[in-house]
Amino acid sequence: MQNETERNTQGLLRLINGPSDLKRLSVDQLRSLAKEVRELIVQAVSTNGGHLASNLGTVELTLALHYVFDFACDQLIWDVGHQCYTHKIITGRKDGLRHLRHPGGVSGFPDPSEGPYDRFLVGHAGTAIPTAIGLALADQIHRSRRQGPSPRIVVLVGDASIFNGTSFEGLNNLGMVRRQLLIVLNDNSMAIDPTVGALARCFARLRLSQTYDDLRRSTAAILEHLPGIGRSVEEAMERLKKHIRMVMPGSQIFESLNIPYFGPVDGHDIGSLVELFNGLRHIEHPVILHAYTRKGCGFAPADNGPSRFHSTGPFVITDDGVIEDKPSQTGRTFTDVFGEAAVELAQRDERVVAITAAMCEGTGLRQFRTRFPDRFFDVGIAEEAAVDLAAGLAAGGLRPLVCIYSTFFQRSMDQVFQEVALQDLPVIFCLDRAGFVGPDGPTHHGLMDIGLYRMMPNMILCAPANAREVRLALEFAVRQGHPVLIRYPKDLAKEGPEQQEDWCVPFELGKAVVVRDVDRADLVLVGYGPLVYEALRASEVLASMGIEVGVINARFASPLDDRLVRLLDSGKRMIVVEDHLLPCGFGSALLERAVDTACKARMDAIRILAAPRVPFRHDTRAAQLIKAGLTADQIVRQARQMLALPMTV
Predict the structure, then answer these.
(1) Which of 38, 119, 295, 487 is catalytic?
(2) What are the helix (H) ranges across 19-164?
(3) Which of 92, 163, 569, 615 has the most crowded CB, counting CB atoms within 10 A?
(4) What is the pLDDT averaged over residues 473-480?
(5) Same domain, 537 and 619
(6) Are both 150 and 204 inside the same structural domain?
(7) Does 185 fall in a domain?
(8) Are both 155 and 280 inside the same structural domain?
(9) Active-site residue among 60, 361, 383, 384?
(10) Which residue among 411, 490, 494, 573 is the active-site one?
(11) For 483-499, what is each residue's pLDDT tens digit?
(12) 387 and 278 in one domain?
């Protein structure tokens, strides 16, 4: 009998091509399947890179949810989306996971274009509860006009996104829902870094006070007292409270909002999870199930170092179990250089402080946090609060560096306008991952920051082209009495002897620098940020054809250097290249300035190479730049067209 069971549980994953296949397994087989799923996730991430620790922590939760619910008609909403790899494996995309985040493979986030099981394209935190409420309210309206059962709605909230402000705004409005809605709180005490803040500390104290036996007793009591026939949710909760030691904070926090709370339970006990979901799915009222999980569970390196393996590049596991990063391009990234420069700046200027939103590692601030713990502030997943905090610090005479990915910084646009730009406060916004970000795809590209922030009063926008200019930009920013936004990509930063040339000079407000002489050139290439190097490569190709081309490193999108307009006015032709959307970017700013100054240049004398307003799916950053036409080859092609030259040599 034991041998038969072993045969039945070997290679189970090869039999799973959709959720219906999962439902044919026993609970014991689900446990074996969980191991296989973990092995596939580790294999896929080690080959392609991706979010590892969070996905290893949600294997049992995801399998149990698909075992009990039918998400072909029920709806599973993710918060945050990067914990969805098991979900993709179960819903017919396991082969796509082998090419995770690469062309031909699946995205690292829920994506409705991949099939019917992904309801929203999700990449940011705090969105699921409010959108699930909207789905529930839509069903309430439709239900009055049709017959038949309603689809069940499940929200899986993880990686500390429950502490995001929009999550609490959603909870505050949960009372509008008068039907089933299950919120599963995946509590792993981690976002990207260990979760911070008073609410997180409350949850941590509760977590530390619970033993494994406590969780088993809690689960048993919940199952015993779940609402049944003739018993209301309120009655069930009263019975439950008598059997579970309510040391809080979970129960008090949520029940003070009049939301029935069950837990905490073991998020890796798949048998109990199946029983719990079977009971909770029948409650026609919003409820919360609080489950403890371990980020990185089942893979010792990620279990012991969840921050290191939150989002990782490809890696190999040696014979002695050591994890080694796969060889890639050598050199320091813009993030590395920024982190070093921030520490150097803080050493020289005691006014400099740093703020991040659950992104200490990702924004390069680890050394800053170690060296200046009293001048480092992590507000958790709360970008809006980070900006307001910075406004207060700046008003108090300090020079705050607000270090956030460009994509996440979009969430704080109103705070930037109201609390910083209108007040003309000297806050320095350091936007990492500006432009194309590669495998993380459309939810994470930083392609809108120039357009969003150059319209704001008093705001200075600049972009360093290389490692040396990162330091120069920071030194410039800290001298200003106005808000400054510095953008830089997820890429290697050029450095070395070539960066000691004449154009790597200190930043001057609104002043571009000439990289290659423009006086004798009929065509001028203008690069904003690191794409100046694509302009340089294009100029070398054109020079080999006997075409004299000038190159300018624009440096500033606001204020613009009027010399650029004067060059157009003098009859020069110009090609602008930028790692940003075409609408409202640097090139648009230049056109607006030309109109304002009554520039006499014909509009066919300027071409703008920027990203079209379409989603760019996961790929390498280099491939995305090629698809957007932001390379030296495309610049040369545009130059040939402008100069009426043959398209072949």
Answers:
(1) 295
(2) 19-22, 27-48, 53-57, 59-68, 85-88, 94-97, 128-143
(3) 163
(4) 98
(5) yes
(6) yes
(7) yes
(8) yes
(9) 383
(10) 411
(11) 999 999 999 999 865 55
(12) no
